[in-house]
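Hi C.,

You asked whether I'd gotten around to modeling the 198-residue construct. I have! Everything is below, sequence then structure, no commentary in between.
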Amino acid sequence: MANKGPAYGLTREVQSKIDKKYDPELEERLVAWIMAQCGDGVGAPEAGKTGFQNWLKDGCVLSQLINSLYGANKPIKKHQSSALPFKQMEQISQFLNAAERYGITKTDMFQTVDLWEGKDLAAVQRTLMALGSLAVTKDDGCYQGDPCWFHKKSQENRRDFTEEQLKEGQSVIGLQMGTNKGASQAGMTGYGRPRQIL
């Protein structure tokens, strides 16, 4: 983590809320997936938030992960461990760019400082979950691990209707528009007469 003093007041409350979103059980599942996807060469992190952060912080594990999902056409050509903060952040940025090209939406992505400074590790978990879900959905043979670890994203199910079917559909009144069954004017007074309140 960066060398920052303790947080006070509102900053501490906000950081506390962000920290509560981190899921230790999800961490175990993500670690199992990354190790299955990349092989045992990536090693295993220490249990807990800081262990998870330190494992991913230099960007090497993330680079290996995204490269393994692309198959033969690897987006990150070289990834090497470095102690220099700038190099580590650059490696994380390369992972994020490759993940976006893979199909992850911007709203599902974390920012580099979320991981490197440990500001929002729950956002890192959300990005990895979205990446796993997309890999399971693509089903291109590159995904390794249990497919039940992630949800499959919905796919387009396009339907083509003929002109006759479309015209038939226009003559049907759907129940969303309401119904007139049971409607009558019994008990209503004539126009212009005052309502009788007893």
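If it helps when you're writing up: The helical segments are 9-20, 24-38, 49-56, 60-70, 85-102, 112-116, 121-138, 163-170.

Thanks,
B.
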